[in-house]
Amino acid sequence: MLATILAATALVIALIGLWLSVALARKVGSRDPFAVPKAWRGILRVHPAAAASPGAFSLENPERQRVAFIANPSKDGVAEVRERALRACAIRYLPEPMWFTTTEEDPGVGQTRRAVESGADLVVAVGGDGTVRAVAEGLANTGVAMGILPMGTGNLFARNLDLPMQDTAAQLRTVLEGADRTVDVGYLTLERAFQGHGEDGTHVFLVMAGAGIDAEMVDGANPTLKRRLGWMAYFFAALEHLGDKRMTATVSIDGGDEVTNEMRTVLLANAGKLPGGLQLIPDASITDGTLDIATLDARAGIVGWTDLFGSVIAQGAGMKQSELLQAWRASRIDHARGKRVEITLASPERVQVDGDGLGRARRIKAWIEPAALKVRVPNA
Predict the structure, then answer these.
(1) Cα–Cα distance for residue pair 17/88, rounded to 1 Å
(2) Contact (Cβ atoms closer than 8 angstroms) between residue 97 and residue 323
(3) How far is residue 189's CA from residue 157's CA, in Å, rounded to a whole number?
(4) Which pTM value belongs to this model?
C-alpha cells in the first residue's frame, strides 16, 4: 500500500515537472538563451541596445576586442571598478580582460607596452592624469585604442574629451562600446640648470604643459585637500604664489624670431578646457595638428590678478581683449600657434605637464605629433 502511494506521488510530481517545462519552452520561444533577464539589467547595468551597437559582439561575430586595464592601485575604489569592469566584459561576451597595476617605478608605460605585446586591442587607463599620460605614451603611434576610466583630481584629458565623469556604468559603456577618435599628442624635453632636480627624458602631454605659476600651483597642492576638495585644492595652492616675482622668458615658435617678455606663466596647449568649465585657451584643439602657446601676465597685485581672471572668463565666453586697451590693463594674455616651440627662462622655473610636476628647468623644447593617438569616446 505504501509503495503504491509513493509511486503515485512520484508520477504526479513528474507530470507537474513536464507541464512546467512545456510552459517555459512556449514562453521563451526563440529568445536568446544567453540573454540577461530583464530584472537583472538594472543591477548589471545592461542595456538591450548594447548588442545592436556598431561593432558589438554577436554570435555571428565571435572575434571581439581584447581589453587590458592599466590601474593605479592608490586610487580609492579601484577594487570596485575592477569587479564592474570584469562583469561588463563578461556580459558582452568579451574575452577575460587583462589587468595590470602601476608602480612608483613604472606609472604605466611598461604595463601598456606589455598589454600591446600580449595582443590587446584596447588599453584602458584607470586613474588620474598621470596614469592617462603613461598609457598614452605607451600607445602613441601603435594604432591601439585607449580608453579612460577617470579617477583623478583634475581628469583634464577626460574633460576635454567630454567623457562621463561620475557615472562608472556610462564610462564602461563608452570604453567598451564607444567610437574611436584620433587626436594629437604633445611632447616636451627639458634642459636643466643643474642635475638631480626633476625627471629627465621626453615627456608626453595631452592637454597642457607650462612653466611658472601653473607649475608652482601643481607642486604646492596639498594632498589632503586634493582628496577632500578635488581640483579646488589647486586654487588654494595658487593663492600662495600671487605675490611671487614675474619670470622672464624668451619664446621662439617654429624657428622664428625670439620674443622676450616678463610674465606669470607660459602655457603650451593641445587642449584648452580646465576643471570648473574654464576655457583657458579656447582655440586649442586636439585635432588641428598644432600647439597653442599662451603667455599670461598680471601686474599691480590683486588688481592685476582680478583683471586676469576676468579675461579668462571673458575669452571662455568668446570675448577677446581689445588691442587698443592692452597698454592700460593690469593683465595680459597673448596667443600664438605653431608646431614647435623653444622657451628659454632667465632663471630656473618649475615645469608641469597635465598636472604632473617635472621639477625646475632653464630651457624647454616642445612639439606636436598630429593624429598620434586613438582614443575611445562616446558615440555621437
Answers:
(1) 35
(2) no
(3) 20
(4) 0.78
Strands 291-298 and 122-127: unpaired
Using alpha carbons, list the distances in angstroms from residue 171 to 53, 282, 338, 349, 378.
16, 25, 34, 37, 9
- Give mean pLDDT in consecutive 10-residue pieces for the chain, a chain of 380 residues: 42 44 41 38 37 35 78 95 97 96 97 98 96 98 97 92 94 97 97 65 95 88 75 72 87 97 94 79 93 88 73 67 58 91 96 93 97 96
Q: What is the spatial distance between Cα 204 and Cα 188, in angstroms, rounded to a whole number? A: 6
Contacts of 273 (CB under 8 A, 6+ apart): 156, 159, 160, 207, 279, 280
How many other CB atoms sit within 10 Å of the CB of residue 208? 28
How many CB atoms are located within 10 Å of the residue 227 CB?
A: 11
The torsion region of residue 162 among left (phi > 0), alpha (psi -120 to 50) and beta comes to left
Contacts of 7 (CB under 8 A, 6+ apart): none
Residue 100 neighbours by CB under 8 Å, 6+ apart: 68, 69, 70, 71, 108, 111, 112, 114, 115
Cell numbers placing 112: 601598456
DSSP output for 37-51: PHHHHHHHT--GGGG
Q: What is the pLDDT of residue 92?
A: 95
Residue 62 exposed, middle or buried by CB count within 10 Å (0-12, 13-18, 19+) = exposed
Phi, psi for 231 (deg, rounded to 5): -65, -20
DSSP helix/strand/coil, 147 = strand
